[in-house]
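> Could you send the Site-specific recombinase XerD prediction when you get a chance?

Sure thing. Input:
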Amino acid sequence: MGLFLLDLGDTMGDDVGDTCVVRPILMPSPKKLGKHLEWHGNRIRVVIRVPPSMLTKIGKGKLKEPLNTTDPLEAEREKVDVIKRLRALLNGTRSTTIRANLSSEAMEWRQLVEREDAGEEVVSGSEVLVHEGEEIVVPYSIRDVLADHVDRIEHDHGHDAGRSFAAVALGEQTPLTILLDRYFVERDHMSLGYREDIRRALSLLEAWCDEKRVRKTVEAITQRVAGRFIHDSFIATRKHPKSANKHITCLSSYWKWLIKRHGIEINPWVGQSIASNVPQRRDMPTAQKRPFTEDEVRKLLTGIRLPRERDISIISALSGMRLEEVAGLKVKDCANGCLRVTDAKTPSGLRTIPAHSALVPLITRRTAGKGPDAYLFDDLEEQQPGSKRDRSAPVSQAFTRERRRLGVDERASDEQRQSNVDFHSWRRWFIRQAVAGLERGEKGYTPWTLANVVGHKAEDGSIDGMALPLGMTMGRYPGVAPIDAMRACIEAVKLPSGCNIEEEGPWSSAKPKRSRVKLRPSPSSPASRA
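Output:
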């Protein structure tokens, strides 16, 4: 629906029957995008059509993938890798399926070969050979059975398929993604989002291998080959260093596991990260995440219009809790003057800490009339099982919009995609204020106490960039800091002046809605004549 401007004209005069003039507002059209790109809301996504012959197999007419940019020029650069990956998916024809099935079967044969090499009898029977008139009994081996099976594969699928099958079964070649599910089973704590990142990075690597005619095996990816892939896929295409390094880190983590569990000798991705070549002025901020400043805290807490986002910001600022930890709080987690984190990013994050005294009115208001299993922020919807988003995602998006509206933003250059400040800057601010308390002589807590409060690893950990010494002596043996020490640490953090938590303000009303103008029909319209 278009937008219209109501021109009152002379309607404010004596003749109330005058007709209103409604004029359309010409909204700026979105920037034109190149081939295979389209706008989806305020984001850009890649779109490729599915050939009619593959509609039944794929199940939809188009493949789409959103990009992490709103800049058409940057989208042009990023779409190249996405299109390669999507087209590689479309090329998943019957031959690809057969190759995948053969690879899985070859891995099963590999297990039998490894068991026999370890001294286990995996096949029975023997063959009698006659040599110079003497009978020799030769027991069958798994390799004999494998050779016969490879002959059948060569007959059915060709010589190359048979050779590849034998190489995989004998442990000479390992398809790039054949062990990925085993890796995820062992890393069951890994988030769904990070798993998708690893799959995406491997898909990029496989598409590049197809293009460059490199075998899609772990053994074929040497350090030199990895360097070529990085240059072709990221450097030559001017991929943002942060995005490129994310892919490289994902590949490196997979290779570390392959070295540990499957005897791969080297990790070709070590030392392959890409340095940012963005010119840096000395009078400009660096591209590093940082805490909010006092002025930014004051501007945010007095300017955020959304009650839920303001309350969650205050809790994070006065507890050091992560966004998803605050969003996951239930009424029973806020009892007895404490805050209990039951689902955290790391084992160290599972903790119970005192609630800041300034949070008592907020918690009382949010828990009033709710059962113990109700969420403190019960207006956040649960996400679908298997979703990469958690229930805190809407808060992160709404907070970002409010932060930008209030002008709280910092980037080292125009090419920097993410701001140096985000919601996590509340947690950084809390830690910075607690460290400042130690610097000015506050008593009753130590840096190791602060690590326990924010859910960091106290042993061999660090706070605000400062390494914690005596890891075993102070981090492991003393255990978790006592509740009184935690309370001293938390109470040392104070909001700047003018940030009254329960004060009436623009946030105390309901979520702002877009104003609408009701248009009365003119006397000449059919509705007025009726």
